[in-house]
Amino acid sequence: MSPLVCVYTIPLEPILSKIPEKIQSLRSAAVPQNGTASKDFLPPTPPFFARSQLDEEKNYCYNTTMISEELINYIRNEVNRGIGKNEIKNTLRNSGWSETDLDEAIKVVMLQSINTISPSVPKTSHKKLAISILFLCLILGGSAYAYYWYFTKNNKATSNKNTSTIANAPDNQNSGLKVLFNQEVKSKSAINPSSVFMLGVSSENGEIDWKTIFEVSSISKISPILLVENKGKLDDFSPKLFIQQYSPQKIYTYNYQYDDQKSEKLQADNINAKLYSSSNFVVISNGEDYASSIVAASFAARFNIPIFFTPLKSEERNLIKSWSAKSIGIGVAENADHTLTVNEANDLLKKDSDYLILTTSDDLTKTSNPRFSLVAPILAGGRDGVILNVKNPTRESVKQAVSQATQNGFHPAYLVSVGNENNFPFLQFNIVPQGTLYNQDDDHQYFVNLYYWADYNNSNEYVPDASVGAITGYSVSDASSLIARSLFYEKISKSDKVITWSPYSSGDPALRQNAAKIDPVLNNDFTKKYLSNLKDYNSLADKTTVVTELKDSSVFVYSGHSWRNILGNISVTEMPVFNNPTFIFAFGCAVLEPWNPGTLEANRGSPIVGYEAIKNGAVGLLGSAEISFVASDLYFGSDQRMLVQNALTMPIGQGQFLTSRMSDAYFLYTTGKQNPEGNNYYYKSYNYLLGDPKLKLKVTSNFTPNIVTDNRIRMDFESKSKLEKFVAVKGGGYTMCSVDEKSCSDLLRDRPRDATEFNFPILLDSYVYSADLAFESSDSFYGRTQLRFFTEDKIREINTLSDSGSKPEPTYKYIGQYCFDFGEKKYCPNLLLYLHYGSMNTQTKEISIPKYLDLNFVF
Predict the structure, then answer these.
(1) Which end of the chain has the lower number of beta carbons within 10 A, N or C?
(2) Strand order in 830-836's β-sheet?
(3) In whole angstroms, what is the distance from residue 814 CA to residue 830 CA?
């Protein structure tokens, strides 16, 4: 029901005289302070009627909605630019619009956002209801008065029930998208709320039973789905281990025998009747087209609605009829009330997704480690992802496919490959400059340089715009278990214990001293200081204790020697079984490098450390597929240490977790000298994340984050003026805009999805890495500049080192003190820039202090 608005005629002069000034101030606060924004970039402000438009002798009451065509047009333009709903609302709210106005206007825009998706359905008809109204708040009695203004001219969209439209809505259990074809999506599950599905990949006649797997994939938001390679050698260790971690009340099996009192076998006919008790929508897909069905299955999983495959069985037709469900044909027109092509279905999903999944349908019939694409819809449903199926992938064809998929404002924050090194040839040759510590060799063409496909803007091939990861393993059984651990991590993770092990640093104090020389401000006990449950080991003799502790750990940080079959002195056969899903930082060599090119299944007699950890219950691993120069001493002052500290001390649930910080660690490129610091370029090329980049680990920190509020802050380094409100721009982690304001504004306008919230806990008794600022030098390489905050004690420590001739290397530049005012608390840390360089030659190049840094703080 529309709100009742009463307008009373009162003297207008004292109110109207202040409105233009108020509007201008609100507009200034909501727009980037660059002075060059286009007219279309400015948000509309609620206008008012001049006094002559009112009859002073009458009062008016209207039932109305407070939205206008100008407001609707502005929101529509912002949506088309890719601006998020919350950001649009924040901007307009600052300009004076009420929450009710904004919710109603956004609803109208979203209902109009996609018209005639289906060629078989007529276009939307619109009925305009134009209402013009003035709302003027009165001041009655005493010395105080308040004023509010509203106006309305409502374009209210109506459409017949056959119109193909889809509307965004607040997130619910099923998806952020919950309205299809002008109807709210409603489905009711018929399964036990705490259940697990174990599905054999092959049917009794040996054929891959992908249709049944895709049918069950539609409930991936509700229950874990485990695939078992039951053709040939039985491979069920990892799925069975997940069941122990998850402890389900019910286990549903299909094409697989599992002896457990909780187990119940699904019948072959009409599995959807077992999954759902009702649904008002279903998806119909082509039962002969595996490639299009991958996308159709991800669509069904996003909305948590059943998927059926042609030709429909009589039982299936009767079930759909009994539900009175509307059918959505994807890649098929048969029995469909609404039809979508595969691209149209993906375009709808892109509107509410930040997660792109690479896979290839070619692997269904390949003999070399096949069938990984079967799990892609499960991951897509659980993460609200969009699947990009690339047939016959090559390095260039994948790059082109990603480039096309990320056009028109779709720039996902996460990019995940589902497959193994035979599916996607990720190695990019000749990217390491001559003279590096170790040159590439042709026999190591494995799952490396994933970042190559994450670069959307082509500004620098080696600095990604998305967090990236890989879902793989010995088999699809391991891959499905890895996905299940990631999607249901919060339920199965019971430990917050962090284990660190640097077994080659014991008894050698010189190594610790060398670490301090790399970065004298770093405190070697930083991680110990802020983690509540941490155990640190530094000797090879600690192996037995470490293995025991790892069984119930949350995070394992290893730094030192490793190879394909060994981590320190833990052999691959001694890799523990993780009762709790553990994430592993493996800073060493070749832990993710198969022994031989080709089929991993054929080389299981020679297992590798990284894949063995995933099979044994780990939830992810960050490691190298090649030689990686990471000594124990280097860890304590290196990018790897920075990565771990950021990952473990960030409050859970805020910001991106792993690879957004990984990219921060890779801005420094190698000089090719025998220098531990100079190997990051090489390190970046050969390290990758095996796991889900959206995962957030369970750890407990001692520090208390500041008050939670929304503060967008601009730090002007030149004028040291009062902090202005602005926004951070994400690009390969968190980076500043260009040094001129117009470039920053253009970037926000052209790549709006890159505007991001940044979780920034200020640690007053130490420093915090807040952001990496990338600068392009004359030789086209990048130096990295870290922004840090220090207390007065730390400032004195740095000055003392400098005065004694032990000037910190890299150097620091003091900028000044900045104060952050959060209600009753005020923080005034000192601000320094930490300058680190890298170039093709050995000469250190000066990098000037930037003019400003834009950050969006979320406390």
Answers:
(1) N
(2) 772-776, 782-790, 830-836, 812-817
(3) 8
- Give the chain's length: 859
Hey, what amino acid is at 718? Answer: E
Q: Position of tokens 């003190």?
A: 817
Note whether 697 and 583 are within 8 A (CB): yes
The average confidence (pLDDT) of the chain is 64
The pairing of strands 338-340 and 355-359 is unpaired
Residue type, 331: G
**How many CB atoms are located within 10 Å of the residue 564 CB?**
19
| Beta strand residue intervals within 574-699, DSSP E | 583-587, 620-624, 687-691
Measured in whole angstroms, how far is the alpha carbon of residue 663 from the centre of its chain? 13
* Cα–Cα nearest to 216, from 359, 332, 374: 374
DSSP 171: -
Helix 290-303 with 376-383: angle, nearest 10 deg: 30
pLDDT band at 457 (very low <50, low <70, confident <90, very high): low
The predicted pLDDT at position 648 comes to 62
Query: Beta 782-790 vs 583-587: how paired, if at all?
Result: unpaired
- Chain centre distance of CA 467: 7
Please state the φ and ψ torsions of residue 174, each to the nearest 5 degrees.
-80, -50
Place of tokens 């500290």: 645
- Cα distances (angstroms) measured from residue 586 to each of 246, 499, 554, 614: 26, 12, 14, 13
CA quadruple 74, 76, 82, 88: dihedral positive or negative? positive
Angstrom distances, CA of residue 794 to CA of 23, 791, 803, 835: 45, 5, 14, 17
**Token pair recorded at residue 677:** 């610091």
Task: State residue 624's pLDDT score.
Answer: 80
Residues of each domain in the chain carrying CATH 3.40.50.1460: 491-691
Give start and end residues of each alpha helix (H) in 12-68.
Answer: 13-16, 19-30
Cα–Cα distance between 242 and 240 in angstroms, integer?
A: 5
More confident residue, 73 or 127: 73
Q: Which of 733, 649, 656, 731 is nearest to 695 (CA)?
A: 656
User: In the β-sheet with 583-587, what is the strand arrangement from edge to edge?
Assistant: 386-389, 355-359, 414-418, 467-471, 687-691, 620-624, 583-587, 555-559, 498-501, 534-537
Please state the φ and ψ torsions of residue 403, each to the nearest 5 degrees.
-60, -45
The fold of 491-691 is Rossmann fold (3.40.50)
Cα angle, residue 401 at apex, residues 396 and 407 outer, rounded to 5°: 130
Residue 856 β-bridge partners: 712
Q: Are 68 and 95 in contact (CB under 8 A)?
A: no
pLDDT one-digit tens code per residue, 719-738: 433 333 223 333 323 333 32
SS (H, E, C) 709-770: CEEEEEEECCCCCCCECCCCEECCCEECCCCCHHHHHHHHHHCHHHECCEECCCCCCCCCCC
Query: Tokens standing for 217?
Result: 């994939």
Distance between CA atoms of residues 525 and 729, nearest Å: 32
Q: How far is C-alpha 859 from the geometric centre of its chain's CA atoms?
A: 19
Please give the single-letter amino acid code of residue 512.
R
